[in-house]
Design a protein that fits this description.
alpha/beta; Rossmann fold; six-stranded mixed β-sheet; four-stranded antiparallel β-sheet; globular; disordered N terminus; disordered C terminus; binds adenosine-5'-triphosphate
């Protein structure tokens, strides 16, 4: 089976090309090829130890591949450090959000936005008109971002005081503040309760409707089946399927990989 088949006619925004990762004698990933196209929501799934986190780390520059290349918007990520990958517009969220716990939710997002476009500090301190206008635009963007993820009513609360699910939403707000061309989410709903999960799913659906490109590593199978345009299945470091949720649910090799339980129930 050709697992690198693209489902969209557009040019891929992200290409994983013959990537392999070995840890000593252990092959964590072997010869992995897949593409993500602009505006697609692609999920990477697989049983425990299949190599999902390793793949995620390669794509975000946290792990060097033993072989192969990852290309993002025509630029090879070879040798780039994680912050350089972020600078290209490929932005990840973290399991443990790197927020400032003591400062407000709003200021957390504002700092994120400042990292991207920083009006001159002197100008801002002196209240020069151009800097003032830039600062106002950033503040408006911070509100928009908070409204988008649905935590605007907590804008004045300390980041660290938010409930777990809302901290994860703030994590997405911080990632969005970097103005990503593609967003990578590593098990975003793990540890969330049912209502937090459904809020997160609604957010992902909103982002998808807005045309954001999203790559998701996730264990929550009902969620993956509901929101993905395409699913890439890893097993023992190898891609065994790449297709729509319906194709994946009915793929015998995928069902066997999930020990007879089937992806529907995994
Ligand atoms: N730094 C490392 N050193 C040695 N082996 C590693 C390292 N990281 C991962 N592995 C091994 O590589 C394989 C793939 O692990 P990985 O964490 O990528 O899988 P996963 O699909 O994310 O699993 P899970 O769903 O349990 O998080 C596993 O056998 C794991 O033990």
């Amino acid at each position: 089976m050709d697992t690198s088949v693209a489902t969209s006619a557009s040019k891929p925004i992200l290409s994983v090309d013959h990537v392999a990762v070995q840890f000593g004698g252990l092959v964590a990933i072997s010869d992995m090829c897949f593409d993500v196209h602009e505006g697609e929501l692609v999920s990477l799934i697989g049983p425990n130890g299949a190599g999902k986190t390793t793949a995620f780390n390669v794509i975000t520059g946290f792990q060097r591949p033993t072989r192969g290349t990852v290309t993002f918007r025509g630029t090879s990520l070879e040798g780039l450090k994680p912050h350089e990958v972020t600078g290209l517009g490929l932005v990840r969220t973290f399991q443990r959000t790197s927020l400032f716990e003591k400062i407000s939710v709003f200021d957390n997002v504002l700092i994120g936005l400042h990292r991207r476009t920083s009006p001159s500090l002197f100008g801002t301190l002196l209240g020069l008109p151009r800097e003032r206008r830039a600062e106002e635009a950033l503040r408006e963007e911070a509100w928009e971002t908070l409204r988008l993820v649905g935590i605007e009513h907590q804008a004045n609360e300390a980041g660290g005081s938010l409930p777990y699910g809302d901290q994860r939403l703030l994590g997405v707000a911080l990632a969005l503040a970097a103005n990503p061309s593609a967003l990578l989410l590593d098990e975003p709903v793990s540890g969330m309760n049912a209502s937090e999960t459904s809020r997160f799913i609604e957010l992902l659906m909103r982002l998808r409707k807005m045309g954001k490109t999203i790559l998701l590593v996730e264990h929550d199978m009902p969620m993956v089946m509901k929101i993905s345009d395409r699913i890439v299945v890893l097993n023992y470091g190898r891609i065994i399927a790449n297709g729509t949720p319906t194709e994946i649910q009915n793929n015998p090799e995928v069902i066997a990989a999930y020990l007879g339980g089937g992806v529907k129930n995994a």
